[in-house]
Design goal:
The chain has 227 residues and is mainly α. It has one domain. 74% of the residues lie in helices and 0% in strands. The chain contains ten helices and no strands. The longest helix has 24 residues. This is TLC domain-containing protein. Keywords: Membrane, Transmembrane, Transmembrane helix.
Length: 227
């Protein structure tokens, strides 16, 4: 009886997974709830960084970088990573919302990179996280927050390149990851269709979106290449 019950529970579990395969993505309510928690944790981390005057990433890892108010931000990074990875794995995100699949993939790389490089956590680095969580806190999304979010990405890139004391190699790593995300965000803003649902009639729009996104990101690419 016990074995049969265990088997039944396992069967139900896998049926639920199979059912979730029919979804284009997780219910937005999941994101609303989690982002309300994440925004609090991000603010805690940000206020602590302000207290210790850590406004830019640092090449050295100090004791302050290991403080509980900073390390608790890892929970945000881990839950983001697990949630995005699970959504990719157990839904048809790649089929129905390919743009979101690309976004999730880039974001997962950023989260994992941050977990293993705690010294980059600072006030400026946390700003995009804060705005992103703010955008997803409410059932009604405000587009102007997305514009601010993308501007904040560029701001972070600019500050890291020009004012942080990171090594050239580390600056390149941080900047290129953030820049790829910015680049893709700009592209999908102008080309507001999923890439896997391409139509010939939208070819001009696709080309225009590619050009505009490259123009927005090119100055930073050139800076990275020639400095």
């Amino acid at each position: 009886m016990i074995l049969h019950k265990i088997y039944s529970e396992i069967e139900i579990f896998f049926r639920r997974i199979q059912m979730s395969k029919d979804l284009a993505g997780f219910n937005p309510e999941i994101y609303f709830l989690l982002n309300r928690l994440w925004i609090i944790q991000t603010l805690i981390c940000m206020f602590y960084c302000m207290k210790i005057k850590k406004y830019l990433p640092s090449i050295t890892i100090t004791n302050n970088s290991k403080h509980i108010f900073i390390s608790q931000f890892n929970f945000v990074l881990l839950t983001y990573t697990v949630l995005y990875f699970t959504e990719i794995l157990y839904t048809h995100l790649i089929i129905f919302r390919f743009n979101s699949f690309i976004h999730h993939t880039i974001a997962i790389i950023i989260f994992i990179f941050t977990i293993f490089n705690q010294n980059i956590i600072c006030v400026s680095y946390l700003i995009p996280y804060l705005i992103h969580s703010l955008y997803w806190c409410f059932q009604v999304q405000y587009d102007y927050l997305l514009y601010i979010y993308n501007i904040s990405l560029i701001l972070v890139i600019f500050l890291i390149i020009c004012f942080s004391n990171l090594t050239k190699k580390f600056k390149f790593q941080v900047t290129i990851i953030a820049l790829v995300l910015f680049h893709f965000n700009v592209f999908t803003h102008f080309y507001d269709n999923d890439l896997n649902h391409f139509e010939k009639e939208k070819l001009f729009k696709l080309i225009k979106s590619l050009i505009l996104s490259f123009l927005a990101a090119t100055p930073f690419y050139f800076y990275l290449i020639y400095n």
